[in-house]
Amino acid sequence: MRYLVTGAAGFIGHFVAMRLLADGHQVVGIDNLNDYYDPSLKQARLAKLLNSPDFVFRQISLEDRALMADLFAGEGFQRVVHLAAQAGVRYSIDHPMAYVDANLVGFMTVLEGCRQHGIEHLIYASSSSVYGLNANMPFSVSHNVDHPVSLYAATKKANELMAHTYSHLYGIPTSGLRFFTVYGPWGRPDMAYFSFTKAILEGRPITVFNHGQMRRDFTYIDDIVEGVVRLCDHLPQPNAAFDRQYPDPASSPAPYRIYNIGNSQPIELDRFICAIEAATGRQAERRYLPMQPGDVEATAADVSALEGAVGFHPHTSIEDGMSRFVHWYRDYYQV
């Protein structure tokens, strides 16, 4: 297969592209290499991909309509894995237009490319943040997601609606994945596990929001990649049993599906920090602060739909995963 992977220099995009290449596919990767976090980390991920003769890179911003149209017209993609986005819940409070450009306009250019060039399957990144004010745990794809608490979450909800519209109007098979907190080697420096590790190794205190009363469904990158790649070969089918009086939010009479992809075993923030302490061999100095705007107290994924579809079953514990991350961190930063 010939794939387009957007956000190929990003954390998840890098690993998905590496796996597709290892499985014998051709991959065209795009990324705008912006400075939301250290671009040198993106360049280092990209350098690994460029070692493969089956990988081609294009530096393109999603919202550039002309370049995106030319990309789809010239490359002959069969499948698209759309992982590029402006990430970050807190960043969206102060930089809302960045999310409109990348996550809304950018998603539209991807959908149009898929429509005009007969893409057989679009897999795209949504987010657990769409659950917003929902307190019914674990989060299920059958739950209502009409109350996001950040603009980032709202753009991801919008992506799901946009994808459904294109699946309905044009028959484009689309599969949305609601990612739950993804971590691991080569991860994003703006994520808590990364900044905590850095601070602990440097002997600085860590900032713990909501006074530590948080639970997250941390999911290791290898488990995430396995789920994404399996789903690539599982094209969504119209739901013949769809009831218009009691509509299922995760399916449709169109070839459209939504899945959670997470570890399904949320852990307390204290256990998470303890795992970092164990991996680094150092004690953390905690400074507790109130909840930040846009955050939620807990996330927990019901992954039964993805398990039923492709046999997804994550297996990496937070202790094993953080040990691997800290090993990578020490090596990469020569700590």
- The mean pLDDT is 94
Number of strand segments: 13
Measured by DSSP, the beta-strand proportion falls in 15-25%
State Rg.
19 Å
- By helix and strand content, what is the structural category? alpha/beta
* Through-space gap between termini: 40 Å
> Tell me, what's the shape?
globular
Largest sheet: 7 strands, parallel
SSE ordering: EHEHEHEHHEHEEHEEEHEEHEHH
Counting DSSP H or I runs of 4 or more residues, the number of helices is 11
Strand order of the largest sheet: 3-2-1-4-5-6-11
Ranges where pLDDT stays below 50 over 5 or more residues in a row are none
Percentage of helical residues?
40-55%
Explain how this protein is built:
With 335 residues, the protein is of the alpha/beta class. 41% of the residues lie in helices and 16% in strands. It is built from eleven helices and 13 strands. Strands 3-2-1-4-5-6-11 form a seven-stranded parallel beta sheet, sandwiched between helices. Strands 7-10 form a two-stranded parallel sheet. Helix 6 links the parallel strand 5 (121-127) and strand 6 (174-179). The radius of gyration is 19 Å and the shape is globular. It starts with a strand and ends with a helix.
